[in-house]
Design a protein that fits this description.
Blueprint lengths: L2 H20 L5 H15 L10 H32 L7 E8 L4 E3 L2 E8 L4 E7 L10 E7 L6 H8 L3 E6 L2 E6 L5 H19 L2 H12 L7 H10 L9 H18 L2 H18 L4 H19 L5 H15 L3 H4 L1 H24 L10 H23 L2 E2 L2 H8 L3 H15 L3 H27 L3 E2 L5 H23 L5
């Protein structure tokens, strides 16, 4: 078995172990199942116990199952014990803390995360919009820390390493924190969002901030719902395209002044800075890890194994925080959508005969990409939100046509705002045209939404994904079938 296959199996079974422990499943059935597989691997068509080449590969698979699944489960268990070992303080007390998140003000409420010094734990603080806090600020506050009311909310906060909530505490003292790279990057993000606010109408500025740097705090509840109903929320979830733009621009710039080696490391640094500046959401972290792997493969003159790159990105994120695998919806949607695009989109292109089609507009590309991603995430969306909308296909085909240009104009606008507000306003005029088109389409298809929902069982979801795998297989067979004149 080749090294990259060994990595794939080991990483996959490790993640399965984390998944099982996250869901409270015991490891014993898996271990016993692995032993049974080992026994079957040694038995060959009634000829007795015989070790063959096929059985050797089977033994490697069993070893990965027996070793890496319990390791993954143990890793999650230890991490969870470390997370919950400090009990929440009872009653109203005074605490010293540091702001360790990007403060976000939404609908008149400022939300941020406090890292309390004693006891050492994180809490979500809800405060009035003023005074505005900044990352790294030192705070003394008094208040009562409460547990999240529901299990789902507790799990949502757990992925951020947050144990409790303190609502409108009394701020006793507040001072600006010391210099930090993340603080500088967050300040840069606010300057960029401010440039959009100063040169564009409110709705269009909010959309531009979401597309360019993933900022969604300026969205009204009405527009947020419109994006959800039209299936276009992913437009403001930074992903592979944003990383591709950053990598292309940075590498081109650095290669002008530096050697190939220095340009490579400088570009990686820019990508890491962009990820931190935008809040390190699951979609952009996944895209950054895969982009880094692709950049490294190109630097070393090797081809990137997409399958292993996807698994490597997931493995890195789960190592850092095992709770994202089950409790972070953004993580799940990001990876499912990517898997759909990588494996299902080519199958759709083959079935429709759209391979290697050249065109001025990329409506075919947008259609099959959106369809593949939507098919991959549909069960999760139905389970979480109750339905999916068919109209999202049309909405995305039309809107995605202008998103790349809009994003490029947004970056140019932000850069010019540091030089001349007059030049920035000229670019903003052209950006507004595309943003207005997108907001109109989002609201139109939200009104035309045709939701589809169903009660999903585990068997139904298994059959659904089985059909998708069959579609991929049949499309591949169709490609491999020789054609005769």
């Amino acid at each position: 078995m080749r090294a990259h296959d060994v990595f794939f199996l080991g990483a996959l079974f490790f993640l399965l172990g984390v998944l099982a422990a996250s869901m409270g499943l015991s490891m014993w059935p898996w271990v016993l199942g692995g032993i049974a597989m080992a026994l079957l691997a040694r038995w060959r068509h009634g000829r007795g116990w015989k070790f063959t080449r096929w059985n050797q590969n089977g033994w490697l698979m069993v070893a990965a199952l027996l070793f890496f699944m319990p390791v993954g489960a143990f890793y999650y268990t230890v991490d969870d014990a470390r997370f919950t070992r400090v009990p929440l303080p009872e009653g109203e007390k005074t605490f010293n803390a540091e702001v360790v998140s990007l403060p976000i003000t939404r609908e008149g409420v400022q939300e941020l995360i406090f890292q309390i010094e004693n006891p050492k734990l994180r809490v979500l603080a809800k405060l009035p919009p003023y005074p505005a806090f900044s990352y790294g600020a030192r705070v003394m506050f008094s208040g009562s820390i409460e547990k999240p009311l529901s299990d789902s909310y507790r799990e949502y906060l757990a992925k951020e390493r947050v144990r409790g909530i303190v609502a409108y505490p009394n701020i006793v003292a507040h001072e600006v924190g010391t210099f930090s790279l993340r603080g500088v990057l967050y300040a840069l993000r606010e300057e960029i969002v401010g440039a959009f606010r100063n040169t564009l109408p409110a709705k269009e500025a909010a959309l531009m901030a979401g597309i360019a740097v993933g900022a969604r705090e300026d969205f009204s509840e009405e527009f947020r719902n419109a994006m959800a109903e039209s299936g276009t929320t992913h437009l403001v979830a930074l992903s592979g395209y944003n990383i591709m733009v950053v990598v292309t621009v940075a590498m081109t710039l650095f290669l002008t002044f530096f050697s190939r080696r220095l340009a490579f490391f400088a570009t990686l640094g820019v990508v890491c800075a962009f990820v931190l500046m935008t809040g390190a959401e699951a979609s952009v972290v996944r895209a950054a890890v895969m982009g880094g792997v692709a950049l490294l493969a190109r630097f070393m003159g090797q081809r990137m194994d997409v399958r292993n790159a996807i698994l490597f990105a997931a493995l890195i994120m789960v190592f850092v925080n095992p709770k994202v695998l089950v409790f972070d919806l953004g993580f799940q949607l990001s990876f499912l959508a990517l898997i759909g695009i990588v494996y299902l989109k080519p199958a759709f292109d083959r079935i429709l005969g759209w391979e290697n089609k050249s065109e001025i507009f990329s409506w075919r590309e947008n259609l099959t990409t959106t369809a593949a991603a939507q098919c991959a995430v549909a069960p999760l969306l139905i389970h979480t939100f109750g339905s999916v909308s068919i109209s999202s296909l049309a909405a995305n085909v039309l809107i995605l046509e202008v998103v790349p240009l809009t994003m490029g104009l947004g970056f140019i606008l932000a850069a010019l705002s540091f030089v001349s507000i007059f030049l920035a306003q000229i670019v903003a005029f052209f950006a507004f045209i595309f943003l207005k088109f997108q907001t109109f389409m989002i609201e139109l298809f939200a009104a035309l939404a045709f939701p589809i929902g169903a009660a999903l069982s585990a068997l139904a979801v298994t059959c659904y994904y089985g059909v998708l795998v069959l579609v991929i297989y049949l499309a591949k067979q169709r490609t491999n079938t020789p054609r005769y004149a």
